[in-house]
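stage 2 :: seqdesign
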């Protein structure tokens, strides 16, 4: 790996992408509306009594 020119920049770019992604995700979670969070969290528990179409 030491023979590759500029190999040290790849871990830094990966860390930057990782950090930016999780900062944006954290920001979205903090600014999301509470009604939306509640609605989405209850989706798996809804009982709509309608038969589901099979996934092909």
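stage 2 :: out
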């Amino acid at each position: 790996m030491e023979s590759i020119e500029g190999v040290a920049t790849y871990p830094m770019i990966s860390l930057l992408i990782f950090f930016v992604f999780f900062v944006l995700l954290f920001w979205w979670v903090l600014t999301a509306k509470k009604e939306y969070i509640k609605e989405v969290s209850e989706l798996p528990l809804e009982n709509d009594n309608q038969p589901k179409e099979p996934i092909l």
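stage 3 :: structure notes
- Residues 7-32 form one domain.
- The mean pLDDT is 84.
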